């Protein structure tokens, strides 16, 4: 829809001088706050937050306008101070401005780094980590365990090993994951200074600048050590145990016919992206899948019956038959519909003005898509708030962003390039947790009063850690 004359901005609540609508969005669960506001002002809503102009998208029809009709001019990311410092001046994939550098990195992802074959090549790593998880849980059968911790450590170990191979020691891994956790919190934190870009000194006054500088220095030192060690090891051992992600990037860097330069900093930025984009998101999804199955015993029984039938008599659920677990795969989809790991995906920024449904979207508007609200829209989902994996059983809806009612991985040009990686890291541990164990709630808690309250952190997680009792299952 092209129009020359300036149209009105999308509707939104009344704005106060200077702060605009900031006071209206403060609340513990911003995805709920924004959905409630959108119920009043519409699925394309304008909010002025300090100096920044924002459009909040809360329906699949409007998401289609962003990710399909206007995808080309909606594929930039806003400049976020924390991200800029931590991602080597936005030279990673996730925060890179739309342009040739970003295109080069995406090409590396789709041809080398995150291809189906590459993800498949990490099968052994996943199976080993999940086997460690099963043994660990088995040793506590009958007593209460903190399953959330075990899930996070399993998924992160899979990612660390895929990135750096088998040799990174436990201490190094712990230190790295703690930095990644700090980074996630710093980027997720609602930074007032980002809403007033003209007042640069705010970043220093709020203490953000110093904090970011410290974390960046630590993460940089750690990446330097890992890269140096890996180069030395390759030169020394000449081992050939399959390429990890860092190997791939170092090899590509050497290629002379690339047509662009992949610098040392770019490699660090991309590796950091894989951790930041991959570990918390996949762990959170797995945690919610277990929580929903505990809350819904009949879905749990169906998922367990399926995996116990397909893997009957086997000691371990490996990846050989995992594609046959149709119900399990629907459980993962239904989990991501109700609990997308990034409730607002990653913010976009328009590069040119455009018109959507008769409203003006000026250039440099931040576009925030409430994927959580879209996944629960009663206009498109029957019993929208109910966990019903069956709805995906005979449905063609996949993760690739073709159906705008289901966009946990985003859509358009900037859709998540790690979908295969993510789904493999969620399905295998889930299948094993269901095959080897029955699960009970402690202290007289029943599925009915099991608390599913959310908390807003780096991603939206279940408020309390999953405290559950595993009971070893013998076929
Ligand atoms: C359940 C797990 C995951 C979820 C829900 C998820 C979701 C997302 C979303 C919503 C975006 C923004 C897309 C957009 O702007 O339209 C994104 C971007 C991204 N994701 Fe994922 N992701 C997951 C796992 C992973 C994994 C495992 C990796 C890598 C191994 C990864 C790598 C990335 C990267 C590099 C980007 C930036 C893409 C760009 O800006 O061009 N993600 N992800």
UniProtKB/TrEMBL annotation:
On the tree of life, the source organism's domain of life is Eukaryota
PROSITE patterns, sorted: CYTOCHROME_P450
* Residues given in the record as heme binding sites: 416
Please provide, alphabetically and separated by semicolons, the GO molecular function terms listed in this UniProt record: heme binding; iron ion binding; monooxygenase activity; oxidoreductase activity, acting on paired donors, with incorporation or reduction of molecular oxygen
Segments spanning the bilayer are none
Q: Which UniProt keywords apply?
A: Heme, Iron, Metal-binding, Monooxygenase, Oxidoreductase, Signal
Cofactor(s) it depends on: heme
Q: Which family does it belong to?
A: Belongs to the cytochrome P450 family.
Name recorded for this polypeptide: Cytochrome P450
């Amino acid at each position: 829809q092209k129009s020359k004359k300036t149209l009105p901005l999308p509707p939104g609540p009344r704005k106060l001088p200077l702060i605009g609508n900031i006071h209206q969005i403060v609340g513990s669960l911003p995805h709920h706050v924004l959905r409630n506001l959108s119920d009043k002002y519409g699925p394309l809503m304008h909010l002025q937050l300090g100096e920044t102009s924002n459009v909040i998208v809360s329906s699949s029809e409007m998401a289609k306008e962003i990710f399909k009709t206007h995808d080309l001019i909606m594929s930039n990311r806003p400049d976020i101070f924390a991200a800029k410092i931590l991602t080597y001046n936005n030279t990673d994939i996730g925060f890179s401005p739309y342009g040739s550098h970003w295109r080069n990195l995406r090409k590396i992802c789709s041809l080398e780094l995150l291809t189906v074959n590459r993800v498949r090549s990490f099968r052994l790593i996943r199976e080993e980590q999940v086997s460690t998880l099963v043994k660990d849980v088995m040793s506590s059968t009958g007593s209460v365990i903190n399953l959330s911790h075990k899930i996070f450590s399993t998924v992160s170990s899979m990612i660390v090993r895929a990135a750096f191979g088998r040799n990174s020691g436990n201490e190094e891994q712990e230190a790295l994951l703690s930095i990644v956790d700090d980074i996630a919190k710093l980027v997720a934190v609602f930074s007032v200074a980002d809403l007033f870009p003209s007042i640069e000194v705010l970043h220093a006054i709020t203490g953000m600048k110093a904090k970011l500088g410290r974390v960046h220095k630590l993460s940089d030192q750690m990446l330097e050590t890992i890269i140096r060690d890996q180069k030395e090891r390759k030169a020394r051992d000449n081992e050939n145990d399959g390429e990890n992600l860092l190997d791939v990037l170092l090899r590509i860097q050497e290629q002379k016919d690339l047509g662009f330069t992949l610098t040392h900093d770019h490699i660090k930025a991309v590796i950091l992206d894989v951790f930041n984009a991959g570990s918390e998101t996949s762990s959170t999804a797995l945690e919610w899948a277990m929580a929903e199955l505990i809350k819904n015993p009949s879905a749990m029984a169906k998922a367990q019956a399926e995996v116990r039938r397909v893997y009957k008599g086997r000691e371990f659920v490996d990846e050989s038959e995992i594609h046959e677990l149709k119900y399990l795969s629907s459980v993962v989809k239904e989990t991501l519909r109700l609990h997308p790991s990034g409730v607002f995906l990653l913010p976009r920024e328009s590069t040119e003005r455009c018109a959507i449904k008769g409203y003006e979207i000026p250039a440099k508007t931040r576009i925030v898509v409430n994927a959580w609200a879209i996944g629960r829209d009663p206009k498109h989902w029957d019993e929208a708030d109910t966990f019903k994996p069956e709805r995906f059983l005979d449905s063609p809806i996949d993760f690739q962003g073709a159906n705008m009612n289901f966009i946990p991985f985003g859509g358009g040009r900037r859709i998540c390039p790690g979908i295969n990686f993510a789904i493999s890291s969620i399905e295998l541990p889930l299948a094993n947790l269901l095959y080897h164990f029955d699960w009970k709630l402690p202290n007289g808690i029943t599925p009915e009063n099991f608390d599913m309250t959310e908390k807003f952190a780096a991603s939206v997680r279940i408020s309390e850690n999953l405290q559950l009792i595993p009971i070893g299952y013998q076929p």
